[in-house]
Amino acid sequence: MAEETIFSKIIRKEIPANIVYQDEFVTAFRDIAPQAKTHILIIPNHIIPTVNDVTEQDERILGRLFTTAAKLAQEEGIAEDGYRLIINCNKHGGQEVFHLHMHLLGGEPLGKMLAK
Length: 116
Ligand code: 5GP
Description:
Largest sheet: 5 strands, antiparallel
Strand content: 15-25%
Strand order of the largest sheet: 1-2-3-5-4
Mean pLDDT: 97
Number of helices: 3
CATH superfamily: HIT-like
Bound molecules: guanosine-5'-monophosphate
CATH topology: HIT family, subunit A
């Protein structure tokens, strides 16, 4: 069983978070330290620590991350201008929370894809 992170507590509503969407597969909430006007994290409800841990059994849930991103982008009014979806993995990817999450970033021009 994978180790819990703070995101499990957010899913169970044990700690406060600005949850914008939740269903049986995923939860989406605003990032506590937004890096763009819109910065939402979309996460599976069950713990998948990193992209390295995804399996074929997760395909339906992983698809839901994308359909949720598309729905939220519409709701946030950023779909037409565009946005960026990011999933960081491990040290080189800059992952800090080991519960797989998709960042939905937008609401302004985001600049170059990689800041080095
Ligand atoms: P990572 O670097 O792992 O891809 O991104 C982790 C993200 O989670 C960061 O953008 C960070 O601001 C966000 N985050 C970490 N702890 C919390 C929290 O307790 N609440 C919320 N809403 N976001 C968090």
